[in-house]
TrEMBL record:
Pfam families: Peptidase_M16_C
InterPro entries: Metalloenz_LuxS/M16, MPP/UQCRC_Complex, Peptidase_M16_C
PANTHER family: INACTIVE METALLOPROTEASE YMFF-RELATED, METALLOPROTEASE
Signal sequence interval, chain numbering: none
Name this polypeptide is given: Insulinase family protein
NCBIfam families per record: YfmF_fam
Domain of life: Bacteria
Length: 426
């Protein structure tokens, strides 16, 4: 595994992270913009990147904007909106080929950063507001995205479990916002939200490729307007939240298969020394096909169509997802809770330990093959205030003992049981 590390800098409000390398034929660019999750801003902030991608002041028409990407030898441009801890984060991504491999008459990294800078800081305006036609069209896009979650019952159950579990925390909010907020959004209100976002968000710009920190700094100075001030910091979310009693919620909808989800507070986050043990905890519990949930709930007891767990290391939450027959609710609940007890006892076979370490190691090694994955991994350090290379994490995982995993398990508390079932009584 390569130990090449990112070089850090800063230009006004933008933190810069540059990895000079000749390993890739492309430049990979990511701009993260994060705000605290809040119900008054979450929907407008989610809409902003959808509107910004439609055009810039110099390329106001969407077709012309796409043509500009084609001129950059088919550069990729996209964005995501997600949450990490209690932050709502917009990530803009660009991939463009290194000029050395094409006969370009323009420096492609400079042109790409110029385009990204325009998208973020110089959008197309009409009468001082974001273009009304684009705002209305993208409101519908956002509505469809949120409706798609309701229609996908696996995702819906997963989101509802977190909403119930974190009812009094910002984390309950979906990063794409709330359906009921969309109608009230106007070009004026989203423009105001955009200006607040531009002046308040935490900005981190990553570039991986054959360049230097100094070059990126000078290009960003030319390309990003109006970013004066100091960088905003990410706050650390509340992690240690004692569970007074386990909440149980049963919801009824038109569904043909039950969704049994559980929310666990593992009281351990990415920045903690015992995070590698938490990774192992999730891996042995339900992270992989050899894990306890998969083997015991799905295979041996044939109680579930799927059974798995997922860890959010920035929030210190582990969630269990399973799909079951309605009649198997009590049985499945019992057998899943038995797996949690097993985790507390520290009885993991050598095979479970070795297979889980191997799976995590494979994942950490694979990161090195993708510039975007390396960027995503490094961004964890910004969010958690904990610098940790993939190589370090790999070594820490390899050294985890059964007792360290059991210690995480004993700190873990079952917070919420959520069951989505049909409308029939019984």
């Amino acid at each position: 595994m390569s130990n090449t590390s990112f070089q850090r800098g800063q230009l006004n409000r933008i933190r810069l992270h540059v990895l000079p390398t000749k390993r890739f034929k492309t430049f990979s660019i990511s701009l993260y913009a994060g705000l605290p999750l809040h119900e008054t801003t979450v929907t407008s902030a989610a809409l902003i990147p959808f509107v910004l991608r439609r055009g810039t002041a110099s390329t106001p028409e969407t077709i012309a904007f796409r043509e500009r990407l084609d001129e950059l030898y088919g550069a990729g441009f996209g964005f995501d909106v997600y949450k990490r801890g209690d932050a709502q984060i917009v990530q803009f991504r660009m991939d463009v080929i290194n000029d050395r491999f094409v006969s370009s008459n323009q420096p492609l990294l400079a042109s790409s950063l110029k385009l990204l800078g325009e998208v973020v800081t110089d959008p197309v305006l009409e009468n001082g507001q974001l273009r009304a036609k684009y705002v209305e069209a993208e409101k519908q896009t956002l509505r469809k995205r949120l409706e798609a979650i309701i229609n996908d019952k696996i995702r819906y159950a997963s989101e509802r479990c977190l909403e119930v579990m974190c009812a009094d925390e910002p984390y309950r909010l979906h990063p794409l916002g709330r359906l009921e907020d969309i109608d009230a959004i106007t070009p004026a209100s989203v423009t105001e939200a955009y200006r607040a976002w531009l002046s308040q968000a935490a900005f981190d710009l990553y570039v991986v490729g054959d360049t230097t920190l100094d070059e990126v700094k000078s290009l960003v100075a030319e390309s990003f307007r109006g970013n004066e001030g100091k960088p905003a910091e990410y706050g650390l979310p509340l992690i240690n939240k004692p569970v007074k009693e386990t909440k149980t919620v049963v919801e009824r909808m038109e569904v043909t298969q039950g969704k049994l989800n559980m929310g666990l507070r593992i009281n351990t986050s990415y920045g903690d020394d015992n995070y590698p043990a938490a990774l192992m905890y999730n891996g042995i519990l339900g992270g992989y096909p050899h894990s306890k949930l998969f083997l015991n709930v799905r295979e041996k007891a044939s109680l579930a169509y799927y059974a798995a767990s997922r860890l959010d290391g920035h929030k210190g939450i582990c969630t269990i997802q399973s799909g079951i027959e309605f009649a198997n609710y009590e049985k499945a609940k019992t057998i899943i809770q038995e797996q949690l007890e097993q985790m507390r006892s520290g009885s993991y076979s050598e095979l479970e330990m070795n297979q889980t370490k191997a799976m995590i190691a494979n994942h950490l090694r694979e990161l090195q093959d993708s510039a975007n994955e390396m960027i995503g991994f490094d961004f964890n350090a910004v969010l958690s205030k904990r610098e940790r290379s993939a190589t370090q994490l790999l070594e820490e995982v390899q050294a985890v003992t059964a007792e360290q995993i059991a210690a995480v398990a004993r700190k873990t508390e079952l917070d919420t049981i959520y069951f989505l079932r049909d409308r029939k009584e019984g």
